[in-house]
Amino acid sequence: MKNKYTLMSAVCVLAFVLTSCADTLDADHYFKDRMTIEEVFTDRDYSEQWLANAYYYLTINNTDVSSKKYNPFCFADDMYYGDTDDRYKRLKNGDYDENFLQGSWIDAYKGIRQASIFILNIDMNEQMTPEERADYKAQARFVRAYFYWLLLRKYGPVPLIPDEGIDYTKEYDELGLPRNSYDECVEYISNEMLLAAKDLPLSRSALYIARPTRGAALATRAKALLYAASPINNPRPGDQEKFSDLVNWDGKHLIAQEYDDKKWAIAAAAARDVMELGRYDLYHAGLRRPESAMSGFPATITPPDDGDFSNNLWPNGWKDIDPFESYRAIFNGSLAASDNPELIFTRGQNLKEESVSQMVLYQLPPLGNGFNTHGITQKQCDAYYMNNGTDCPGKDMEIGRGDGSKRAEGFVTWEEEAQRKYPELDVHEEGVSKQYVQREPRFYASVAFNGSTWYFLNRSQQHEKNLQVFYYRGSGNGYTNTSYWLRTGIGVKKFVHPNDCHWGNDPLVTQYIQKKVDPAIRYADILLMYAEALNEVDGTYNIASWDGVTTYTIKRDIDEMKRGTRPVRCRAGLPDFKDYGNKDVMRANIKRERQIELMGEGQRYYDLRRWKDAEVEESLPIYGCNTLLTVDQRELFHIPVEVASLPTNFSRKMYFWPISHQELKRNKKLVQNPGWTYNE
Question: What sequence ranges are listed for the domain SusD-like N-terminal (predicted)?
């Protein structure tokens, strides 16, 4: 039997392409059976609509930062959610099956197909200038490679579809494609992003901010190359876990079996390519004096003197910046995407149902009419430094990693509030546990600790603003007999603007929430990637830049490592690391820095897997406050206890997401990921 289904034969009629959801882009309504491929790609409007449909598949199931309905991968050992308990427990216990959350695979390959057709045909469009065609083709090339990047990150190695399509004259069983190896996938992504970068501009206007730039292509390439260098695909000498059972039917290993030091050098050079563009910088906000401070926008709190950053102006110091606002404003909608110098790639405000704005609804407490279900674990709370760069007392003591110190005891008194002893707590201080005072600025921009101030400035009545929220049982914001309460008694403020509040029960109504964009890739990530890759390099390598114009000498150079870490630490208001000479110590430092800096941005889940740390970190019990206690037992409330309702478990099969049974039936040459099944 001959299969008449092929990429290029089927696209002669557009019904092939648009057989998915009824709510896809308006382009669906234009491309009918009677329209030929030539009619589409000789018309500017139809061509643009075709490309827009490829972009569409980057939303919903293929987001980077969003709420959990389609993308629960912002939740690892750092964050959790509680409003859909069964679903969360399935995710954390590995109890999901092979057909759970598979929309990303389906949509990614639809987008890949859509982009491939565009690339092959756009040159016939004479209504566009050669420069426009080159830009559009580069956009489509970026989109296609980005889909492969998202698939690789989630599923591991995947089949690479031939650009020219499939030969429909072959027998049905011959049309199946085996999975390519991890390195082959990364090589393809790398090469495609290099081609895209040549024709993509360095910047976009505000109107087209969600379209990729040269930096976006090079940054995605750098991320893929870093993953290829990481232990998930680059087992260190002596590593017993090499995924040697992840093989194709012909016995071909899909994961590298031998360590290659040069992979780290290549990844470092790729990150440096982004840095050398000179296009990006960490956002920094200026000082806010007490006389200019207002509710929700407190006066700058100068970090303790470190004898380094304290003495210098940005970018060499924090003397003229506000570290708290510099970090907070990146995420909460204060900055337009076009005004954010560290935003490398974003989907803008094109995300709908599970956008960042919707995510904030789940973070807001009941006093803000929010759902009060996205929280932070005690481990994540402890990860944040004190304001002088030391660990918080009692850090990780419950999970056996403490240094012997005890957690701070006592609460801020009315007299201490009157004296403004702890101004980092802003409007309200009294009653806050001293475990939460004198922490680093990112802590206050990210963590909704017990007794923190929520501003709700969009409300009309003054008495409804600047409210102190406690999570004690019986407080109205703490434990309830519903699903809407914080299991650890510690919430999330990252992405929340001082204006944000909510009215009604509809999560799609966000008119009182500041509009936000997703930080899919930002410069701080690239800087930390550069430092991480350099830290791992043992040899010395000469690596050509992306355009071949120069050659980098890549080695474990401490001054170069500092180019990656110092800006992030400085902007955070923290002193620089002191242990650059020790590879193991710096590895731990960089991992922790990523845990803090990128919290809630969909990085931690995948970082733990590429480092092969997930089997330890995601198996540790989750601790939090004793949320069953009332304010009368506030001392006991703040002694961390294991949270029984938040399961922790990690099995080997959870390193890679399963491939659906439907895909395995459709493609006989497709092999399943280790630990998952082939049959329903």
Answer: 99-224
Which structural domains are found in the chain, ordered by start? 34-270+657-666 (1.25.40.390)
Contacts of 625 (CB under 8 A, 6+ apart): 378, 450, 471, 488, 489, 490, 637, 638, 640, 641
Count of H-run helices and E-run strands, the chain: 22, 12
pLDDT for position 496:
97
Nearest to 189 by CA among 156, 221, 233, 228: 221
Token pair 């690239």 is found at 526
Q: What does the block give as tokens for 562?
A: 């500092």
Q: What is the pTM of this model?
A: 0.93
Cα separation, 254 vs 246, in Å, equals 6
Contact 274, 280 (CB under 8 A): yes
Q: Which residue has the tokens 């700058």?
A: 300
Mind listing the pLDDT tens digit for each residue in 96-130?
A: 999 999 999 999 999 999 999 999 999 999 999 99
Residues of the chain by 3-state class (helix, strand, coil), percent to 5: 40, 5, 55
309 vs 70, 561, 567, 593, CA distance in Å?
42, 17, 10, 18
Q: Which two tokens stand for residue 40?
A: 């589409």
Taking Cα atoms as reference points, which of 48, 168, 27 lies closest to residue 118?
A: 48
Q: What angle do CA 215, 216, 222 make, to 5 degrees?
A: 85
Instruction: Determine contact, residues 220/345, Cβ cutoff 8 Å.
Output: yes
Query: Which residue reads 């696209």 in tokens?
Result: 11
> Both tokens of residue 200?
């993509």
Mean pLDDT of 637-659: 95
Paired residues of 467 in beta bridges: 454
- The predicted structure's pLDDT at residue 19: 28
Q: Encode pLDDT of 386-443 as tens digits.
A: 999 999 999 999 999 999 999 999 999 999 999 999 999 999 999 999 999 999 999 9
Q: What is the pLDDT of residue 403?
A: 94
Q: Which residues of 247-266 are buried (b: 16+ CB within 10 A; e: fewer)?
A: bbeeeebbbbeebeeebbbb
Query: How do residues 452-495 score in pLDDT, each as one tens digit?
Result: 999 999 998 999 999 999 999 999 999 998 999 999 999 999 99
**Token output for 539:** 């040899």
Say how many C-beta atoms besides its own lie within 10 A of residue 26's C-beta.
9
**Contact partners, residue 659, CB within 8 Å, separation at least 6:** 98, 105, 155, 670, 672, 673, 676
Total residues found in the chain within this entry:
680
pLDDT computed for residue 133 by the predictor: 97
Percent of the chain with pLDDT over 70: 92
β 491-492/447-448 pair status: antiparallel
Predicted pLDDT of residue 41: 96
For the record, the structure tokens of 633 come out as 């037992």
Q: Which of 48, 73, 62, 68 is nearest to 20 (CA)?
A: 62
**pLDDT, position 12:** 30
Q: Enumerate residues 6+ apart whose C-beta is below 8 A from 539.
A: 261, 262, 265, 555
Rounded to the nearest integer, the mean pLDDT of the chain is 91
Task: Tell me the average pLDDT across 17-22.
Answer: 29
Q: Nearest to residue 263, comparing CAs of 287, 305, 233?
A: 233
CA-to-CA distance for 609 and 76, rounded, in angstroms?
10
- Rg from Cα positions in the chain: 25
